Amino acid sequence: MPPEFARRVLALLAEVPPGRVTTYGALAEMAGYPRHSRHVGRLLGNLPEGVTAPWYRVLGAGGRLSRPGSHHADWQRLQLEEEGVEFNASGKVDLRIFGWPDPMV
């Protein structure tokens, strides 16, 4: 992916306020790269040294944690819950309530 992709995605991610979430696909689309959600995941999973971004505010399609049950997913859920994001009984976040930039369907 071109460097512009990373700049756009990270700039958008910086705008996601506490207590709100977005998806890999939504970030890719807003950055101008629809259908590149996996590239967003790869970028966030390999952030360069010294680059900080609220990666934990990014969820999989439908409001799912990526790799549920892993240490990172547990930490992500804890971070989101501390910001007021609620998970339903099946472990998903209701994007109609907590989605950014607007509640998502």
TrEMBL record:
The keyword DNA damage applies. Residues 4-85 form the Methylated-DNA-[protein]-cysteine S-methyltransferase DNA binding domain. It holds the Pfam family DNA_binding_1. Transmembrane segments: none annotated. The keyword Nucleotide-binding does not apply. Keywords: DNA damage. It comes from the Bacteria. This is MGMT family protein.
